Amino acid sequence: METVSLNNVKVSEAPEGIEGAGFFATSLEKAVGMARKNSIWPLPFATSCCGIEFMATMGSHYDLARFGAERLSFSPRQADLLMVMGTIAKKMGPILRQVYEQMAEPRWVLSVGACASSGGIFDTYSVLQGIDRIIPVDVYVPGCPPRPEQIIDGILNIQKLVESESLRRRDSAEYKAMLNKYGIE
Amino acid sequence: MEEVSTEDKIITVLKENFADEIVSIESPYNFLTITLKPEKIISIIKFLYDQERYQYLTTLSGIHFPDQKSIAVMYQLHNLYANKRIRLKIYLPEENPVTSTLTTVFPAANWMERETYDFFGVTFKGHPNLTRILNVEDMTIFPLRKEYPLEDQTREDKNNKMFGR
To answer: Complex ipTM, two decimals?
Structure first.
């Protein structure tokens, strides 16, 4: 039987920097990026079958905990990542938007599945034709529903954004203009 | 002696009491369907409730007939004692569909009438709270009327060339 040793635990690689006897120097941005990337608190906004795939993603088989995102936040105020999984009816739109507005910066949005991304098969008067009509989206995961591997791929893409995002991007005029486009101050 | 069926009996009783109100009597798929004039529909249902034990309202809904320029309101009643069902239909004009509320007889008609109002725009006079029940409050159309397309018209990625719109 294979024994599990601590040697199998992979530790996040240190960012580039200058190393010497007893010191290591790197930029604050890189250190913060690394810390944020590996401790994302997702808020699951699951409204239909994509939410079931998310349950599998969080389960032991796929185990999102491997990527530092095992602590789900059910309060938007503490969450870093809004995961929208499922059909969003137009009546649900203002609620989703309120949840997004309650999240503190920095915040990211992952749109999981065809319905959240484009309305999917529900091309009808009562369904929002993609959540990007009301809130900005960082990564889209296609599929109807996507398999857990695809959801993990989406999370990994979010991690890339989180790791490389400048600490000051959220203060930039472009970012504010982007939010204004959605009517968020 | 041949036993008189409940269907025949109810038709006889209705003809005796409301002969002027009956427009037509059919039995599609063995489901007794009586089309009535809209004015006295509530008193007829009340009569069926009191006298004929049709005391369960299965459903109530609207149907749009654009060719006839009318909106039908359809009531399904169930006599749980005899296990017999009956469907009553009234036709209202498309431009101003107004009828009386059934909540005076069946309180359960409250949400059904709100739904019928929400989707077909039928006004039920005397309803305690005739507001939209399922759709967004600021919706201006009655989406199950045939003149309104099913698809969301705000989508740009589906054009005529690719989706036959």
So the answer is: 0.75
- Confidence check: pLDDT of A5 > 80: no
User: Is B74 in contact with B89 (CB distance < 8 Å)?
Assistant: yes
Please, which pLDDT band fits residue A11 given cuts at 50, 70 and 90? confident
- B132 vs chain A: nearest CA distance in angstroms? 12
Is 90 exceeded by the pLDDT of residue A3? no
Handedness of CA B131, B136, B138, B139 (dihedral sign): negative
Closest CA to A54 of A24, A81, A20: A81
Task: Please determine, for residue B63, whether its predicted confidence score (pLDDT) is greater than 60.
Answer: yes
Give the Cα separation of A69 and A64 in Å (integer): 6
Burial B39-51 (b: 16+ CB within 10 A, else e): ebbbebbebbbee
Residues of chain B contacting A134 with CB distance shorter than 8 Å: none
Peptide bond into A145 cis (omega under 30): yes
Question: Does B135 sit within 8 Å of A124, measured CB to CB?
Answer: no
pLDDT of B3 above 60: no
Interface test with B, best of A92, A96, A125 (most B CBs within 10 A): A125
Q: What is the pLDDT of residue A7?
A: 67
Q: Which residues pair with B62 in a beta bridge?
A: B73
Report pLDDT for B109: 95
B153 torsion bin: left (phi>0), alpha (psi -120 to 50), beta (else): alpha
Query: For residue B117, which of A156, B104, B106, B137 has the smallest C-alpha distance?
Result: B137
How far, in Å, are A173, B7, B60, B73, B117 from residue B68 at the CA level? 58, 29, 20, 14, 20
pTM for the full predicted model: 0.83
Cα end-to-end span (Å), chain B:
63
The nearest alpha carbon in chain A to B137 belongs to A91
- Say if the Cβ atoms of B135 and A91 lie within 8 Å: yes
| Residue A127 contacts B, CB cutoff 8 Å | yes
